[in-house]
Specification:
Blueprint: E1 29-32, E2 38-43, E3 49-56, H1 70-77, H2 87-97, E4 100-105, E5 110-117, H3 121-133, H4 139-158, H5 160-172, H6 187-190, H7 195-205, E6 211-217, H8 224-230, E7 255-260, E8 266-275, H9 283-294, H10 300-308, E9 315-323, E10 336-346, H11 350-367, H12 371-383, H13 385-388, H14 392-404, H15 411-421, H16 424-434, E11 441-446, H17 448-456, E12 462-466
Parallel strand pairs: 2-6, 7-11, 7-12
Antiparallel strand pairs: 1-2, 3-5, 3-6, 4-5, 8-10, 8-11, 9-10
Helix pairs in contact: 1-4, 1-7, 2-3, 9-12, 9-15, 9-16, 10-11
Length: 468
């Protein structure tokens, strides 16, 4: 019997890693259209899906008294018909372009976001300009949007994370401050909104002279100046005085508020206070220290509460800008950020989990971060940047954030440089100042009958129980 011939395989050479190329956050070009619209453009070769962000200076503080949520309804209504297209026709035209158009309102203002293939950019920008220039705000569409929003509110209140956030804002900020109330309004205020109120808000605050357009993507072969002139350049309007916004004040007296949900098998934790915004020199160190505390699976909070004790699937610490203004702007520095720790634990272990969490904070204050923790955080935060900003949308969103927060165009690039230069001692000082164990407002959404007494025994502040 003859032996079968041996089978041989030819392997392709293993690919070798190339030399790392230097990377920096893209620098935009800045210009102004005759209408007064500021334009930031960033050419990104290869990014065939172009992202456009429109930043409208229509802050929630500008909403009329008793009409909280009108900015949200207006933002949603921008794509619900114009003077040339009905709502259905406008949606069909967007679909023909392969484009998506979204809008939302937040404390700094209204953002309109467009994504479209580069080949269809002129048509999509024309539709966007139409929505900004002449929205229909038809009674039937506004009524539908109001009903939709009213239907959303009970679902949001049923969500433990959303309910905890609503309570934390109510606890931290005075009732007179718009920030203390839900961004998208309450059932009472939304129910009052009609087409006349939406149009009045639009006419008072939406105009090119106080807006900025950010355009990011590959526009090779396009005369972008001509495209902008023929589209967004047709949107005209008068000037307007900046909307005055009050300084952000808050009460971070250490205390606990339990939102009672009888029978809940988990407790949602949200622990927070306010801190500086991105204009403060401490921001980079605070980002680094907060990442070490609770920014990833290897952070201190996760190591204790998740890996060692098994109380939770994960706990995160973060800083989120609420509103940011330049110190030398109108009214001076009036910005702030939310510094928070968020997660959920099983109901029986709510007390022990909080006790361990506070122990992590005290240990951090006493012993500080390690150089190894700092090094890992820098590698993760700075090293991931080229991937984080791989899409045009991520770059456009960050540039729009900088516009909203009155930051220089090179802020993000400088932030990465500062993160790399920040030392362990500086990061420790920043995170300890951000999360002092005796100055935190704790909101717990859970079964008060089971968790109230164990939480009281911790001595982390006065405990109050409120209904759901």
């Amino acid at each position: 019997m003859t032996a079968e011939p041996a089978v041989t395989m030819t392997f392709h050479p293993r690919p070798q890693a190339g030399e790392a190329k230097p990377w920096a956050f893209p620098a935009p070009e800045r210009g102004v259209l005759p209408s007064g619209l500021t334009v930031l453009r960033c050419h990104r070769p290869g990014q065939q899906v172009v992202a456009v962000e429109i930043v409208l200076t229509a802050p929630l503080d500008a909403e009329p008294e008793g009409l909280d949520g009108v900015a949200t309804i207006m933002a949603r209504a921008l794509s619900e018909g114009t003077d040339k297209h009905s709502a259905e026709e406008f949606a069909a035209e967007l679909e023909r372009c392969g484009a998506t158009l979204d809008a939302h309102a937040d404390h700094p203002g209204v953002r309109v976001s467009l994504e479209v293939p580069a080949s269809r950019l002129p048509k999509a920008l024309a539709l966007l300009a139409e929505a900004l220039r002449a929205p229909a705000f038809a009674d039937s569409e506004i009524d539908r949007l109001v009903r939709n929003r009213l239907d959303e509110i009970p679902h949001e209140l049923a969500n433990p994370q959303r309910r905890a956030a609503k309570e934390l804002y109510r606890q931290l900020f005075p009732a007179s401050l718009r920030m203390s109330r839900p961004r998208q309004g309450t059932e009472e205020t939304v129910a009052r909104i009609d087409a006349a109120a939406v149009r009045a808000f639009y006419e008072a605050h939406v105009r090119p002279a106080t807006a900025t357009a950010v355009v990011v993507g590959d526009y090779t072969g396009l005369d972008l100046d001509a495209v902008l002139a023929d589209t967004l350049g047709t949107w005209t309007g008068g000037t307007a005085e900046p909307v005055p916004v009050p300084p952000v004040t808050s009460d971070d007296t250490g205390r606990v508020v339990i939102v009672d949900r009888p029978g809940a098998v988990q407790t949602q934790l949200l622990i927070g206070r306010t801190g500086p915004d991105r204009h403060d020199r401490v921001w980079a160190a605070q980002v680094l220290g907060t990442y070490c505390l609770g920014g990833t699976l290897t952070s201190r909070l996760d190591k204790v509460l998740r890996e060692e004790k098994g109380y939770t699937y994960g706990v995160r610490a973060f800083g989120q800008v609420l509103r940011s203004t330049a110190p030398d702007g109108p009214g001076g520095a009036t910005g702030a950020s939310m510094l928070a720790i968020s997660g959920s634990v099983d109901t029986p272990n709510t007390g022990p989990a909080l006790a361990d969490l506070w122990q992590v904070l005290r240990t951090l204050a006493e012993g500080g971060l390690t150089d190894a923790e700092r090094d890992v955080a820098v590698q993760n935060l700075v090293g991931v940047a080229p991937l984080k900003f791989e899409t045009a949308a991520s770059v456009a969103g960050t540039l729009a954030d900088q516009v909203e927060q009155q930051l220089p165009d090179d802020y993000q690039a400088q932030l990465y440089a500062r993160l790399a230069e920040t030392g362990t001692v500086e990061a420790t000082s920043a995170v300890v100042s951000a999360f002092p164990a005796d100055r935190l407002v704790t909101v717990l959404v859970g079964d008060a009958a089971q968790i109230e007494e164990p939480v009281r025994a911790l001595g982390i502040g006065e405990v109050t129980v409120v209904s759901n």
